[in-house]
Amino acid sequence: MDRLNAHQKATVGHAFGYVGLLLVTLVIGLPLFWMLSGSLKNLQEIYTFPPEWIPRNPKWSNFREAWESMPFARFYVNSLIITFFGASAQLFCGVLCAYAFAFLHFPAKNWLFLGVLAALMVPPEVVILPNFLFFGNTVRDWFGLEDNWVNTYQAIVLPGAATAFGTFLMRQGFMALPKDVLDAAKVDGAGHLRTMFGIVLPMAKPIVITFAMISMVNKWNDYLWPLVITRTTEMRPITVGVRLLFDAEGNNNWGVIMAGTSFVILPLLVVYLLGQRYIIEGLTAGAMKG
Amino acid sequence: MAIHSGTAPQPLQERAEDPAKAYHTPKRGVKWFAGKEWLLFLLFIFPNFFFLFMFTYWPLWENVKLSLQQTDLLAFSGTPKYVGMENYEWLFGNRTFRYVVQNTVIFIVSCVGLTLIFGLSIALLLNERLKLRNGVRALVFAPYLLSGAAIGIVWAYIFDPRFGLLAQILDWFSIPSPHWLDRPAWALPAIIIVYVWKNLGFAVVIFLAGLQGIPKDLYDAAKVDGAGPWWRFKSVTLPMLSPISFFLMVTSVLATFQAFDIQQVMTAGGPAYATTTLVYYVYEQSFGQGANFGRAAAAAIILFLSMLVITAIQMFYTEKKVHYDG
Asked: Does B37 touch chain A (CB under 8 A)?
């Protein structure tokens, strides 16, 4: 190595660098490729060893078979409903709360903010049982209902309606806005609603979009709570639905199963391709300040 | 308020005469509003606090109460009995639960350790001026956003000992594939591999941001002092990255505590509890066969306290670091 000059050293370094990049690409990319190629294989191509990397006669009917063996259309509707209402609720709660903590005066505000942040230490997994009992029992007693709320959309969505992370992230973003613009609004006599919708939200758009995307992805991927609180196949979201397909096809019919998993993953990949910049930058910003 | 009814035009006349007062009129409105600002504050924070209280804090308290009670299988209708710490004592004396705790520790230490080591290595690689590095960054981050349930199923196919991707790769080196998901010794490592693969991207992105925040002159100064690449890494990169590594370590530990969907899909906690972690145990005891609400609640509280201790340690060290800097 000592005999090489600086330029040659750099070239050797770059060569190693590209080998590294290739390795990383293979390790992360191959499993995803395996899913896609598997979703197009027929049974014969699945049961060959060494395996076929690219199926010779792509069997597109795997997708149709998966779609028909489980009510995927219904799963999509359920997941869309849960994602839409869940993310909207979090956005609503988070934006209002973040605005209040960033711009409104209130005694002992910092202590209240600590009350929001403390929720980060109580993950949903810790409280699944009491929340389940609430929708199974308490809700009926409280409202004098005929039936409990197990297996309903509101029971899936409501426990995830608040957001501690989003409040923290957006408050941070709001407080980073230039002060003079906000002061100017105040002098103009703009009320807080007008300041929020006319100035703060448009200016803090990137961070709000970041949170909206993270929230949407989380709601779409949510698994444990919907698994627990839904009882019938028609109420399952797509993440639980694909598990049902996996069980039904029994560890064998990988082509159909992979087609089913791609139903879950493809919408996420589309969202990711559209919003990659927002998601990565938003998460990074949150981490660097936190 | 009396001014409002009869003498309303009067301020208008004043305004016309005195420009200074004209400026003050809207400001008086702001002041009136400022007096009510606390009300607006409460209104704005209400939705978030309401749901946090209803589905986070109150159930946490309910969970504490449940953990001190004994409930029969008909917990919905049966009357609970206060039993003090009995559920906790039962858990700590139970061999399965100790196995579950051991699994949880192995799972967390391996996942976090591997994620940090590989995450830093890949971040260092992507920090070099190489073509296509942004594309690779996007690819590495992608699995982090994908559904754990779907990813678990894809990996179940990859681990298939007869026709899976991994069996093929091992075959190139003439190694027979283990029966990953059916053997207690291999199941947990398999879950760890999937978990690290899925969550690596977050560490990479955060480390990369940390690396890009290190001032260039520090490296130049080290170079002038004759420091080689390894020495520069040890004396500049690592110390400058230590706050962000600590942040990543703590958030990764907390996230790993909560891992659920991958295990549920791939092994359902088995074989023979080999992949049952604390969260999975809480789920099993709450909704599985032979569910026992008291024990489930006690296990959930143990899970919560473990996470609380780790957060407290983080706050303690962060505080220390701030003081050190100041």
From this structure: yes
Under 8 Å CB pairs connecting chains A and B tally to 287
Q: Is B129 helix (H, G, I), strand (E, B) or coil?
A: coil
pLDDT of residue B298: 93
Give Cβ neighbours of residue B278 (< 8 Å, ≥ 6 apart). Answer: B100, B101, B104, B257, B299, B302, B303, B306
Helices (H), chain A: 6-38, 43-46, 61-69, 72-103, 109-117, 128-133, 139-143, 153-157, 164-175, 179-187, 192-195, 201-203, 205-221, 224-229, 238-249, 254-289
Q: What is the least distance, in Å, from the CA of A68 to any CA of chain B?
A: 18
pLDDT band of B9, cuts 50, 70, 90:
very low
Verify cis geometry, omega within 30 degrees of 0, for the bond prior to A50: yes
Smallest CA–CA separation between A143 and chain B, in Å? 15
Tell me the average pLDDT of chain B.
82
Query: In chain A, positions 75-134, which contact chain B (CB-CB < 8 Å)?
Result: 89, 92-94, 96-97, 99-101, 104-107, 109, 112, 115-116, 119, 121-123, 125-134
B26-51 pLDDT, tens per residue?
455 555 555 578 888 999 999 999 99
Q: Is pLDDT of A278 > 70?
A: yes
Q: What predicted TM-score, i.e. pTM, was given to this entire model?
A: 0.86
Identity of residue B274:
A
CB B123 within 8 A of CB B208: yes
Q: Where are the alpha helices (DSSP H) in B163-292?
A: 165-172, 184-212, 216-224, 229-232, 238-257, 261-266, 278-287
CA–CA distance, A138 with A158 (Å, rounded to integer): 15
Nearest residue of chain B to residue A227 (CA atoms):
B261
Mean pLDDT of chain A: 87
The answer to whether A184 and A226 have CB atoms below 8 angstroms apart is: no
Given a contact cutoff of 8 angstroms between Cβ atoms, the answer to whether B134 and B152 are in contact is no
pLDDT digits (tens, 9 = 90+) for A85-108: 999 999 999 999 999 999 888 888
